[in-house]
Specification:
CATH architecture: 3-Layer(aba) Sandwich
Radius of gyration: 17 Å
Shape: globular
Helix content: 25-40%
């Protein structure tokens, strides 16, 4: 397996650089672009996240991960938003597509990254499959609010998530989808999970759950289980060895 890091300027902000880490098996393989959650201190170099990437890559799926603008303790965090995260993912997607034009691309994400994945779908090329782990849902107005008081005010409105654009966007997805929820999720309300499950097309989807709470990447044993679930799904849906 080879390990490559790409550094590029985001089209929306030429002064900002986004580092993409790519784990590539020796043979040709699908590429999973993963968008992680919203914790400001998290990064693609978190030990359990690195383990997750390597386990998936060793099974034959190329892994591409990145850090959003404003993450890793960046003081500019509160100048970013869901919209900038969607733009970051779009930039990563098209860069990976330009480097590996013949590869099948899979989009995946957890928590806020799950929402980011769904919200990016109208702006990118056709994906081969989608993987969602405990995705969040936000009122459509929250997309344009910077993180901080403005964002918090919107998402704390009672059941504001019901007006999320994520549900109609996911309803249009016709590619294989793996939807994983956390059995004892203390962050994503059960009503959001239920709405997502009712939205995905069951004839093209798999619904699964992980025991335990929302913070999957805090527990290595759950990370390994997650990786195995994704590997199995992609081998069945994309039919690669």
């Amino acid at each position: 397996m080879t390990f490559t890091e790409l550094l590029f300027n985001l089209p929306a902000d030429p002064t900002s650089k986004c580092k993409i880490s790519v784990l590539r098996p020796i043979w040709d393989s699908p590429i999973l672009i993963w968008s992680y959650g919203g914790s400001p201190g998290f990064s693609q170099r978190h030990p359990s996240f690195v383990k997750f990437k390597r386990q998936v890559a060793e099974a034959g799926v190329m892994m591409a991960t990145y850090d959003y603008r404003g993450m890793c303790g960046d003081r500019d965090f509160c100048s970013t938003s869901l919209e900038t995260r969607i733009n970051d993912l779009m930039g990563v997607y098209w860069l990976i597509r330009s480097h590996y034009p013949n590869s099948r691309l899979v989009l995946g994400g957890n928590s806020m990254g799950g929402y980011t994945t769904i919200a990016s779908l109208p702006y990118i090329g056709r994906e081969s499959a989608i993987v969602l782990l405990a995705p969040a849902a936000y009122h459509w107005q929250a997309k344009y609010a910077t993180f901080g008081p403005q964002f918090s005010e919107i998402i704390r409105r009672n059941e504001s998530w019901k007006d999320s654009d994520a549900f109609p966007l996911l309803d249009r997805v016709v590619t294989p989808t793996l939807f994983i929820y956390c059995q004892d999720d203390e962050v994503i309300p059960p009503d959001i999970t239920d709405r997502y499950i009712r939205t995905v097309h069951l004839d093209k989807s798999e619904i699964a759950f992980l025991p335990g709470g929302h913070k999957v990447f805090a527990e290595e044993i759950r990370v390994s289980t997650l990786a195995n679930m994704i590997i199995s799904f992609l081998k069945n849906s994309l039919l690669f060895p």
